[in-house]
């Protein structure tokens, strides 16, 4: 067994009470992986400074989960919603979930699963709000998937241009123009005004006439 990537997207929350006396709350969430010291176990969302008690983050993060510890139910995921303040951040509510609970309740692992959990006070245990997030487990990292070798394809046969196809050399690689043969003189040269500039092009004498209106 190896490690399984667990992608978490902390979406939003609803906080019941304002922990500030007079100002709007600036909320963020810290997510921790508990029970495995072999991988980075702490992530933090951005701070929502505008939404107050209804913060919106939509912040994604990924943890590598030890598959054996997951199946033994030894890993937990902790969410802590905090309020950013000048004199020290204040905890709003906390939530701890066994990762095996998320793993067992996942229906289709090809798509994220959306859930909502109550966050509680860390001291009194009373409900302080609701946290909304999604999660998705990936495949085990120790499983090798051999890529099939690319099949050799025969080289395509070059396509020769039609003998009667006209050749018009404009000298302009980034523009495409169509010419009227009414402006070609006896020497095979053409002078046309293009955006105020004198435009010259050489035409193969054997090329057929192209009866197209240039729009000059």
The helix content, as a percent range, equals under 10%
Question: What form results from the Cα inertia axes?
Answer: elongated
**Spans with pLDDT under 50 lasting ≥5 residues?**
143-152, 167-182, 193-207
Structural class: mainly beta
Question: Which percent band covers the strand fraction?
Answer: 35-45%
Main beta-sheet annotation: 4 strands, antiparallel
And the CATH topology of the largest domain? Immunoglobulin-like
| Number of domains as seen in the coordinates | 2
Mean pLDDT: 77
> What is the C-level CATH assignment of the largest domain?
Mainly Beta
The number of distinct β-strands equals 11
What value does the Rg take, in angstroms? Answer: 34 Å
The oligomerization state is single chain
Helix count, per DSSP? 2
Q: Supply the CATH superfamily name of the largest domain.
A: C2 domain
What does this structure look like?
With 216 residues, the protein is mainly beta. The protein has 2 domains: 135 residues, C2 domain (Immunoglobulin-like); 52 residues, no CATH class. It is built from 2 helices and 11 strands; from the N terminus they run ββββαββαβββββ. The strands form 3 sheets. The chain has a 4-stranded antiparallel beta sheet. A hairpin with a 7-residue loop joins strand 2 and strand 3. The protein starts with a strand and ends in a 13-residue tail after the last strand.
Give a quick set of tags describing it.
216 residues, mainly beta, Immunoglobulin-like, 2 domains, 4-stranded antiparallel β-sheet, 11 strands, 5% helix, 40% strand, elongated, C2_SRC2/BAP
């Amino acid at each position: 067994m190896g490690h399984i990537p667990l992608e978490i997207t902390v979406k939003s929350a609803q906080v019941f009470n304002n922990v500030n006396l007079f100002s709007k709350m600036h909320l963020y969430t810290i997510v921790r992986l508990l029970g495995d010291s072999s991988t980075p176990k702490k992530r933090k969302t951005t701070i929502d400074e505008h939404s107050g008690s209804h913060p919106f983050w939509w912040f994604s993060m990924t943890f590598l989960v030890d598959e054996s510890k997951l199946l033994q139910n030894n890993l937990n995921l902790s969410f802590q919603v905090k309020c950013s303040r000048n004199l020290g951040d204040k905890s709003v509510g906390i939530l701890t979930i066994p990762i095996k609970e998320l793993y067992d309740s996942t229906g289709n692992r090809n798509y994220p699963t959306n859930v909502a959990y109550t966050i509680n006070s860390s001291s009194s245990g009373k409900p302080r709000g609701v946290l909304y997030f999604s999660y998705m487990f990936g495949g085990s990292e120790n499983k090798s998937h051999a890529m099939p070798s690319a099949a050799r394809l025969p080289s395509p046969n070059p396509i020769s241009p039609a003998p009667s196809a006209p050749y018009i050399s404009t000298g302009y690689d980034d523009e495409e123009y169509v010419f009227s043969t009414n402006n070609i003189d006896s020497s095979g040269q053409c002078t046309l005004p293009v955006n105020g500039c004198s435009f010259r092009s050489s035409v193969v004498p054997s090329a057929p006439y192209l009866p197209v209106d240039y729009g000059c």
